[in-house]
Amino acid sequence: MNTDELQVLDLGVVRKARVIIRNETLINSSNVLYESLRQELKQLNASIDEVDLVINNALAAVPVLLDVDELREYVNGLEDMGADSDRQPARDSYLQEIGKLLDSFSVRFTKVREGVNAAIFVAETAVISGNDYMLSALQAERSVLLSQVSPEEKPLIRMKEQMAVIDQAIKVYTDNSDLDKALVLVDNATSVLDKAEVPGGMKAAAIKAGAETAKLVLKTLNEAIKFEHLIAARKSLQESIDRRANRMTSLEQQLDANQKKSQQFIDSQNIVEPRRAYVYQVKKVADAFSNFHSAVFLKPKDVQATAKLLLADADTLKKYCQNLQPYWLRDV
User: How far apart are alpha carbons 329 and 304 in whole angstroms?
Assistant: First the structure.
């Protein structure tokens, strides 16, 4: 086994998925009207937290399990004995001890590996109700209510629909976090500074790179201005909705409640893709553990060969865990 066989996680994807899921499940769930959906969102967040914790513990535990100095001593001692028939009892004793060490390692490693797999499975299969049946029923109810609405009662309905569009636009902007934008600018600015220090022909390249960075700054500022306009538009629209809501008829109140319920089922699907991306990444850790165990215990009855495989591959997996673990729970 080599490092190429151990897939490297994209920690940026993991962190972004965590933030989106946390926002949707903890912040937005407080306004969810359906208790069953609220509980589903909370359970998903709890399952993601559990995966984070289990993998963090596994990344810390596996390097300890891979401390195989004692096993190495027995393997080296066995090889030093050679093929002398008089040494067979000693060889048998060494093979027995090696077998015990391998069994102990396999049991403990399998426990860690299965714990990771189980936690990921819970997060992957946690139910989030798209609930097509409920959405269909709510849509049918809405159609009946709309057929009873007079022309003068429709402004609030239109304003609510506009609000949903603005909220989605705001969500798209905020999901593309300021950190993502800032990192692009920092990378480009660093490149400009590096090139500026080089004499001669590199100055032209530095000037060009500087212009590109300036464009990125202006683009980011322009996006921020558009975002501020969105916020201002939402605030103004909310004030109009509040004024109109104070004069809502019973029919409008029913329509308003219907829209809120439908939107909550729709919004709950916003975490489906982040959950899928998160699970895809964390499975790379589970696969690393499984592939390692399969590679080492290819022929478990051949104790000496298995021990040599473990000794040969231990450092590869140990370094994989040690490189990943310090960054695993960081949000930035």
Answer: 38
